[in-house]
Amino acid sequence: MTAKEYLEKAYRLNQVIDIKLEEVSALRSLTTRVTTAFGEDKIKTSKKRSPMEDVLVRLMDLENEVNIDIDRLISLKKEIIETINQVDDYTLRLVLAMRYINHKSWEDIADDLLYDVRTIYRFHKQGLKEIEKILNLSVNITKCQ
User: Fold this and answer.
1) pLDDT per residue over 12-44, tens digit each?
2) Residue 6, CA atoms < 13 Å, CB-side half-sphere
3) Angle 42-46-47 from CA coordinates, rounded to 5°
4) Engineered SS bond to 95: which of 27, 122, 123, 135, CB 3.0-4.6 Å?
5) How far apart are CA 124 and CA 106, in angstroms?
6) Which residues contact 76 (CB under 8 A, 6 or more apart)?
7) d(CA 137, CA 126)
């Protein structure tokens, strides 16, 4: 895994959470719709769940999945922040954190740090090289233990 792929893991997980939250919202909206069936009263003899029960069960399952994913995202962001903090140069750290933790655009990073975008790209490239060294070092330490 490259340094960029490692740093983008939190962003990708955040996207997955957003998609699941949209689905939760859609399911919640389904639960507020109430329809009445007019016609003959039937006595149900089977223990089949109603469509509303199916929606509620799916909603609860999805909310649990989202909570698990949020816990994973928090842990992953903490791990990524700890890795970024191992970079010696503060400017490189700022660029990496703004991009991969705060998900800022290149232009916003350049404006915040008072550099042009090309300079930010250069800092980013240098930062990725530093992260690559850190990741390779930690892999080598893990293999030796």
Assistant:
1) 999 999 999 999 999 888 777 756 555 555 555
2) 22
3) 120
4) 123
5) 10
6) 9, 10, 13
7) 17
